[in-house]
Amino acid sequence: MSNQAIVFAEAGPASVLKVGSIPRESPTGWDILVKNFAVSVNPVDTKVRSVNPGWSQSVRVLGYDAAGIVEEVGPKVTDLFKKGDHVWYAGLSTRNGSNSEFTLVDGRTVGKKPTSLDWTVAAAFPLVSLTAYELMIEKMAIQKGDPGNLLIVNAAGGVGSIALQLATKVLGIKNVVATASRTETIDWVKKLGATHVINHREPLGPQIEALGFPIKNVLLFFDPDAYIPQVIQFIQPFGKIGSILAPQKANFLTGHRKSITLYLESMFAKSEFGVDEASQGKILDEMADLVDAGLIQSIASEAYPYNVENLQNAHKKLEAGAVVGKIVLTVDENSFKQ
Questions:
Q1: How far apart are CA 22 and CA 278, in angstroms?
Q2: For 118-143, how does the pLDDT look when each residue is reduced to its tens digit (9 = 90+)?
Q3: Which 8-state DSSP code applies to residue 242?
Q4: Residue 284 in domain
């Protein structure tokens, strides 16, 4: 059976995305087949599309966020899911993604969809929720009621929008400083709970000094080479820096003298290397409970019907740095028309 999708055959700009089809596979082992009702886009989509790293198939399907209904389950997944369950997932970097009618995904990395969200809003959450949770709670071990003050650089993006809410609404950190530079992003981070807002287009040190309290933990969601040299000047000794991007040139000498720890987060690492995949399903279940309890609010800022034109435009907006929160796309009967 065929599986309608938006695909690309070679690296290039957003215009390489085309309507096509791939085989519809049946799940084996831990896999489940999900019928997608809504998807979202992330910077990783644009990066993979622009370079298309080693891929043996003739076309590739992107997409690392979706909400949908379980269509089929593999034999090892029967205790986790059944046909008809409502789920959300981010998927795996080594497989075709959610820009298709059906997606085959490791069931251990899938979570139950929050009952309080519709498909469209739910699709914004999975990748950024896993990223923020793994970095803050698993790696940096930030605890509930942690007395250390937190700085989030680029807090209005997808990951930042979740990290900000985890910090303020779930972990109860007293001082959470968010960076934002435009009126709409400043309003966005205030809405999500930032206690203080500073401008990442200006030197950070003087702005932190003016706040009058020390910074113990820092989350970098943009350009670590630009911000690590600034952060290590004012972060407390034995502080922690978490980044979703690897620094290429930043000099960490002062950080070493202060015994600063740098944590790097890749949400795909667990599935790619076969390490504790089931933890991701549990994180998504926990995030669903937090959403349903009203502790985490929607991060979907723009919603459109899912089709090739709107997907191309979403990629272009991401590449232009013009997205606040997340763009979501709702699948309908016209999504895969030429």
A1: 27
A2: 999 999 999 999 999 999 999 999 99
A3: E
A4: no
